[in-house]
Amino acid sequence: MQTALRLAQRGFGKTWPNPTVGCVIVDTSELQKKVIGSGFTQPAGSDHAESVAIKQALNRYGKDKLFGATLYTSLEPCCHQGKTPPCTELIINNGISTVVVGCKDPDSRVSGQGIDILREAGIEVLENVLRHESESLNAGFFTRLKLGRPLVTMKVATSADGQIATAMGKSKWITSELARKRAHLMRAQYDALIVGIGTVLKDDPLLTCRLNGLEDRSPIRVVIDSNLRINPSCNLVLTSVEVPTWIFTVGNKDAKSLYQFQKNGTELISVSENENGLVDLNEVLDILGDRGISRVLSEGGSILNSSLIRSNLVDQIAWFRSTKLIGGDGRSVFESIGVKDVDDMIEFELTKRESIGDETLDLYRRMD
């Protein structure tokens, strides 16, 4: 199952709206157990993990090896017809005798029914093997089904004292090149990346994954731009054909404005305004959830960071911290988030600490 979970991670950022799943098939007919097939979920519309593993085993060893084999899958096999056949049908038809499941699929079209179908076919099913790890792996998928919005991870890169820029707004580069490469790897593992218009106007970023071999893993780019201040000639707009760019703005825009962006493949999405006349972030995330986005990485500045925190929309924080100091006249990672009393402080728990040279990456999870 641990191998299946590691395989599933390879699908991050590429499988939405489907969850990412890992699968391993083991031949147990001989004293020495042998892996005869493995795989992970392919991009939407393509094979699920179980199908990839079964096809691999068939191609390598033929159907005889599958009879009596044990299949390990990080998520309950699907039992409904979508763009691909039900995985339960493939498992049954190929004579697999035992299925080990990491956790149940919360999708109402499955949700225990896949396991029931396998058992009714005479297949032994073992449930909840490394359940916590399996559910954590697909936390974004679970969040989308439960709350209707994707899981949101806020990525910040700061000095040791929590500043994202100097008093003059200079931020290149607070963290090291190694830390920036780690951040690009993180981009490759998310379905969408979100920033505010301030970041776009200041930096004119590409917001792509620029690691060798992972250039095709750039997430969809989402810009929060209430008043449509973005320049139609900026990098994000001009590269929308290669990497989709969605701009969320308030109210309907005139035809000329729409054409300026649509000719480059950029999509403008009008949403409601909040009490401050700005884009309603709850609605933005609901729309992303409706479109099948399960994992969002926020790389905004202090304004977007604070808005997401105040709206209770941040599930995780990935905090890159350098060893350098800027001081109190620098720009904080947050603006006001409405905390007036110690008892009102917003609490996150540290779940992992990763060393990146002399710097650190701390992963936090919001406490419910």
Task: Give an overview of the whole structure.
With 368 residues, the chain is α/β, with parallel strands linked by helices. Helix content is 27%, strand content 23%. It contains twelve helices and 16 strands. A hairpin with a 6-residue loop joins strand 1 and strand 2. It is globular.
Q: Topology, pairings included?
A:
Layout: H1 2-9, E1 22-27, E2 34-40, H2 49-61, E3 70-73, H3 87-93, E4 98-101, H4 113-120, E5 124-126, H5 131-137, H6 139-147, E6 151-158, E7 163-165, H7 177-187, E8 192-196, H8 197-203, E9 220-224, H9 235-238, E10 245-250, H10 255-262, E11 267-271, H11 281-290, E12 295-298, H12 302-310, E13 316-321, E14 331-332, E15 348-356, E16 359-366
Parallel strand pairs: 3-4, 4-5, 6-12, 6-13, 8-9, 8-12, 9-10, 10-11
Antiparallel strand pairs: 1-2, 1-3, 7-14, 13-16, 15-16
Q: What keywords describe this structure?
A:
5-stranded mixed beta sheet, 368 residues, alpha/beta
Report how far the terminal alpha carbons are from each other. Answer: 28 Å
Strand proportion: 15-25%
> Gyration radius, to the nearest Å?
23 Å
How many helices does DSSP assign?
12
Runs with pLDDT <50, length 5+? none
Proportion in helices: 25-40%
Counted beta strands:
16
Q: Pairing-aware structural class of the strands and helices?
A: alpha/beta
Mind describing the biggest β-sheet?
9 strands, mixed
Widest sheet: strand ordering: 11-10-9-8-12-6-13-16-15
**Mean pLDDT metric:** 92
- Topology as a string of helices (H) and strands (E): HEEHEHEHEHHEEHEHEHEHEHEHEEEE
Oligomeric nature of the chains: single chain
**What coarse outline follows from CA principal-axis ratios?**
globular
